[in-house]
Give the backbone structure.
Amino acid sequence: MPSWDNDPKGTMTAAVLTSVGAKPPSDCFNLNHSYPKPSLPGPEWVLVRVKAAGLNRAELRSRKGEKPGMPEFGIFQAEYHEDPPQILGEEFVGIVEGAGEKTGFKPGDRVAGWAYGGGKAHDGSYAQYTICHSRRCFRLPDTALAWDVLGGTCMSMWTAWGALFETARIASTSTVLVHGATSSVGLWAVLLAKEHGCTVFATTRQKEKIERLRQAGADYVLLEEELEGSLNEIVPDGVDCVLELLGPDTLLSVGLKHLKMHGIVVVVGILAGWGSGISPFLIPSTRKLSFFTSSGDEGLENLPRVMEDVVRKVEGGVYRKEVFVDKVFELREVGLAHRHMEENKAVGKVVMEIP
């Protein structure tokens, strides 16, 4: 028996997606207490005992049977599928239980992982154990922070940081518009940009979410229907940087429209769907359009330093859990967690604790 498998039965508890479609989320999942534990597929993989899993809207689309097409999972291309039964979940924090000889990890390491391909090319993080390629697994700083706090920090924070600092290269004097700011990435973008010294504009469609954005430090919180008039009045020449979290279909009407000359729009989310695309000839002259995804390799050499800095600021109260974590569910409540997100009640990260 492999050294990483301490369970003689080789089983675990998992929330298994058994069906998809337009039905109540709880009807799509089955809590299975004897699901086979994953094994390491190669020397570059790690097996992790999951302690908390962050939820993503892509997982809602998978649960509903929406298939946007094969993402570029690289090494996962041949194995890609989106058909039940499967275990969803792309991100997690936890403890390494087993590691291939080419990973640089060892049992007992506390890690965060972005398990791209989780729920599509292999079972994901809605379970007690998951596997992750070592390229997407990172050691956590030493900290006493609870697992749910770490689960609400890692992937969302890194996506926001990469968009702001790796791609947009914002300065402390920059004006930044976060379009779709109540998502987990959006809230982290507000927190990070404000801490950097920027003037931050944040948008929402719901009045009841305004206060959370103010708590995150946004200088101006704008309702979507009032965005154009309000923004033109405050910054008639536009902003330096727009983080677009709703998707391609709002690039012309919001992002590029409110961008000053030589400014940049960074697409980091598709909350409103994949959209129909945009012709490059419609991009206004002297404006720049880019994209950042945490599935890429850009800036990974900075991740340990950034994670250390952010964790210490969470410990010190600079970034507060009640701002960036929306709600914490148990694994058995996976259907409720999906429904909570689907009803657009979340402001920040929805996290599941794994027993």
